[in-house]
Amino acid sequence: MAFGIKRQELAAWKEQVARGEIAYLTHYWLDSRFPGITSVTKVGCADLDRLEQWCREHSLDPHYIHRRQPFPHFDLMGRRQKEILKQEGLNEHIFRFHL
């Protein structure tokens, strides 16, 4: 279950993804399969080659990309989520979602 984002934020993320840009969307998220995880960052890009390259640059397996069209994305959670958000200069995501 996703919550903690506004429609405007989701719309902006979708626009960036559709343009083939790497886009980040962090939101609160609860799933019993992942105890202790309270948020996820969706890293999206309609250009799958670019998204796969982004995964490799961050030592992530592109196999785990959700290839759902029109908004393919990779889900970041846990320790790697915070590390990568920090690397990308997305401190607002870290503070807002208490990572």
Keywords:
alpha+beta; globular; 4-stranded antiparallel β-sheet; 38% helix; DUF4031 domain-containing protein; 99 residues
Summarize it.
The chain is an alpha+beta fold. It is built from four helices and four strands.
Helix amount, in percent?
25-40%
**Number of helix segments?**
4
Structural class: alpha+beta
Q: Which runs of at least 5 residues are low in confidence (pLDDT < 50)?
A: none
**How much of the sequence is in beta strands?**
15-25%
Structure description:
The chain has one domain. The longest helix is centred in the N-terminal third of the chain and has 12 residues, at 7-18. The chain is globular and about 30 Å long. It has helices spanning 7-18, 48-57, 78-87, 91-96; strands at residues 2-3, 23-29, 39-44, 73-76. The chain is an alpha+beta fold and 99 residues long.
Indicate the topology.
Elements: E1 2-3, H1 7-18, E2 23-29, E3 39-44, H2 48-57, E4 73-76, H3 78-87, H4 91-96
Antiparallel strand pairs: 1-2, 2-3, 3-4
